[in-house]
Amino acid sequence: MNITFISDAILEFHGPEALQHLGGAEIYDRELIERLRSRGHQVTCIESPYVKPEQLEQTDTFFIISNFVQLPTAAFPLLKDKNYIIVEHDHKYCAIRNVSDFEDFKVPAKFLINILFYENALAVCAQTKIHAEVISKNLPSTCNVINMGGSLWSEQDLSTIEQHTGAEKKWPYGVMMSNNPIKNTARALEYCEETGEEYYKIQKSEFEKFVEDLSMCENFVFFPAVLETCCRAVVEARMLNCGIKTNGLIGATSEEWFKLKGQELIDFVRENNNTIVDKIEVLLDQENLINHGREITVILNAYRRPHLLEEQIAHIRQQSVRPRQIWVWVNDHIDNREFDFSAVGADRVFRNDHNWKFYGRFAAALLADTEYIAMFDDDTMPGTDWLLNCLQTMNVQEGIMGGIGVSLNSKLYADHVRHGWATHNEKTVEVDLVGHAWLFKREWLSYLWRETPVTWDNGEDIQFAYLAQKYGKIRSYVPPHPKQFPNKSSSLRGYELGVDDKAASSPENHHLFYSQRDAVIANALEGGWQLLKDQ
Fold first, then answer.
1. What is the three-class DSSP state of 487?
2. Cβ atoms within 10 Å, residue 181
3. Which pLDDT score is estimated for 293?
């Protein structure tokens, strides 16, 4: 593919001395460019100040935009209808590019800039989990923010680090010396003085010398004044078996892999380099953005509302992310015994002579061979972008996605707060459990069967959330349900279809329904389930 890579500074146009005043963003970009070229892509690089209109009017190229502070104003409208992604290294939607000055990293409206440019991008590529979360918090919910899951290192740099992983630790602490105020070297030195221990001042130098000096330090001390989107130096310190003394402003610490160190972390980074470029390659084609690696089996549950199946399947067939297959699990009831399930347009139908209630469909899901499973209650009609919404959210915050999420205020199920289609949450919300419409990785199904439930008659959503958290450290989330974009909603007719006398939670059944769910919650809490309110 033809790719035009645009950034304020590109290392291939500068000599080796440029590394002394350019930073991690340029190193990341250089590695991305080289890896894309090694995979057969034709990459043309242009520095932002020198972009010409005719270069942006090309129809046969895909644009990757990195740092764009120096991009001419006239360039933005020309890119509006082009296929482009933004490789975000900081926060260029913020006029001061520093979100750390604001409470909870939420940028006041008067400081927000370039919003339309971000909205028009096919994707905004963040470096780490917290970076993606902060970007998502400040941009409209229509922006497709994807967590790349780390930074990029060249094989040469990784080999250099590898040679020093066994170095003798001569200094209790090491401080990276910098005149850049955002690195806050003064605070790191102050910390070392307070400990009374010896420390080593690591001077800015060529990479090999930096690694050699850092490898001799027992701990790397770094207290940045702003949120570091990843922080290469901290990750390199971990690869060199150093401890880290820092504050809460290091993006890398939000990643699960940060618990690794030494050779184990080096091996992970090598593999993650390929993973990051794989994600970029997926984005190079809009068709792939929607379909590549996103195979989904949809499982529907038929019981007392079989007449809704045809409409529900039509909603699912119209998804912008089209599932590989749609299966229907039929629990026996007099209301469906004469129904012709062959006429609804499903790919598979599990016709049972028994009512397996809520767990049956999860058993059927074990037979799927796709990466993802999507489930819908029989009263749930999703908007056309619901599955895409889930996958985009999964890129930022991996977990069990749901159309309705419940946050428990106590051990009683009735004492809860709901999020999702019923409340139109603008941003992703972490919850204790989800239901109505799920999307999750098929491999997570194994957690559901590790413990026998208190009852097979109710509470499968509670049990799944509990066991996924306990055995897989998997959390539950409700993707954005902005009211102005109903196509992203999990349920378009929830209040209309979910309140009839066929519902398991109908008013005349409340006492039994809630007592069963309370029992499931009590069992989960006893087994170690951690509610959000207690964390």
1. helix
2. 10
3. 44
Domain ranges of the chain: 2-147, 155-261, 295-534
C-beta of residue 142 within 8 angstroms of C-beta of residue 249: no
H-run or E-run covering 526: helix 510-527
Q: What is the DSSP string of 23-82?
A: -HHHHHHHHHHHHHHHTT-EEEEEEGGG--HHHHS-SS-EEEE---TTS-TTHHHHHTTS
Residues forming beta bridges with residue 290, ordered by sequence position: none
Confidence band for 23, pLDDT divided at 50, 70 and 90:
confident
Predicted pLDDT at 505: 52
The pLDDT assigned to 288 comes to 60
What is the pLDDT confidence band of residue 479, given thresholds at 50, 70 and 90? very high
**pLDDT tens digits, one per residue of 319-350:** 878 899 999 999 999 999 999 999 898 999 99
CA–CA dist 150, 91 (Å, integer)? 16
pLDDT-above-70 percentage for the chain: 94
Mean pLDDT across the chain, nearest whole number?
92
Q: How far apart are CA 436 and CA 490, in angstroms?
A: 8
Which amino acid would we find at residue 76? Answer: F
- Taking residue 267's Cβ as centre, other Cβ atoms within 10 Å add up to 14
Cα angle, residue 240 at apex, residues 256 and 472 outer, rounded to 5°: 15
Query: Could you tell me the fold of the domain covering 295-534?
Result: Spore Coat Polysaccharide Biosynthesis Protein SpsA; Chain A (3.90.550)
> Quick one: how far is CA 392 from the chain centroid?
7
CATH architecture of 2-147: 3-Layer(aba) Sandwich (3.40)
Burial class from Cβ neighbours inside 10 Å (0-12, 13-18, 19+) for residue 120 reads middle
